[in-house]
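User: New here, any thoughts?
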Amino acid sequence: MSMSNFAGTRNYDARLRTLERLIPEPTSLAETEISQRIIGDLCIKIIYQYTIISATKMAEIIKLPYFGVIEPVLVQLRKAEVIDLGGSEGLGDMAYQYVLTPKGIQRAKEVTDHSSYVGPAPVSLDQYRKVAKAQSFGDVRVGPQQVRDAMTDMVVGNDILESIGPAINTGRSMFLYGPAGNGKTLLSEHIAKLLGGDIYVPYAIEADGYIIKVLDYNLHVANIEGRAVYDPTSLDRRLDGRWVMCKRPVIVVGGELSLSSLDLIWDDSFKFYEAPFQLKANGGMFLIDDFGRQQMRPRDLLNRWIVPLEKRMDFLTLRTGKKIEVPFDELIVFSTNLAPRDLVDEAFLRRIQNKIEVRNPTFEEYREILRRQCDALNVSFTEDGAVYLLREHYVKAKRELRNCQPRDLLKQIIGISAYQGIQPVLAKDLIDAAVASYFVEL
């Protein structure tokens, strides 16, 4: 079942419960879907880091239950004389504190040399694929009212509004183009609202013995308050703590994007991988802003993503040379100020399903943006001032309108008014002064 943009709470809750049945809290080592060695190595590195630590604290860090999972691992490590009891914080097995033996210290150095990752246990790559498929936004459907509601704080022409809904309903990729200053990035962020719902993101993934860190609090917004956890008094099980409920991600990259950043990023110091942007964006939106100004040719990016765009699967390369298959389930948005003909060829545009021109505003749209910005910036709006600005500084000056200009000009007026010690207002003399200091003829 896909993560649809359900309107009703009942349907939304039903969708969450269906998804969460894929990530129940494991009750045995087998149900973790990762090897006992990985969990044991995490325990060893945690003890090595803390010197002495309780079983309860270890379980909290690893995000796996003590009984059935952590307990048998600790028992095995004690039998192998890698760890030993170092005390107790209270009553019961979970209160026991553990230390490393001399043999354990040597083992800790060995496993740290392979990977010094310490934190929540990873999920298996196979489980990640299943969950990503279950929470895909591929079945999201939006209508005219939903689009208008999402764009209510923007002034957007009907022609653009009528293009957004079908683009979300029918496509996996979008090409936004038009002059600079018309709000393509802001429009993209509003489009992301229409994807709806929450998704579960793993702290990390295990692939061929390597750890790939996925959850990134700089990019993912945890929705802890909205997390649906099963009632412990019911027959349902709790959720796997290795997954965190987040809002659908919106990841924005610009000119800093390079081909190398689209593959697994190896950390030489800590010896684990950081997931690339497109993997972290799964289930949400990946916006490539200022397309055409990256550290690569647009054609190179297309060649890198021909298969992912069509097959919804990406291939990432491990240090060993082995390639792993991961989901590529996101809305890819290319946003550019450059003319499409100067960037890409017909083959590229054919693979991007939806092309939307974010044109210059009309006079009426510009006036409405100006009025709203006056309200937002506490500048007195006057019809005479608006007419004067448009007539004298746009029509007569043969200057093109941009969505960003009302805000920018008003900020100039505010600065000039503050200098003169007067209240900011949309008056002729202040408009003239703002225009003179803002525009430059190229």
The chain has 18 helices and 17 strands.
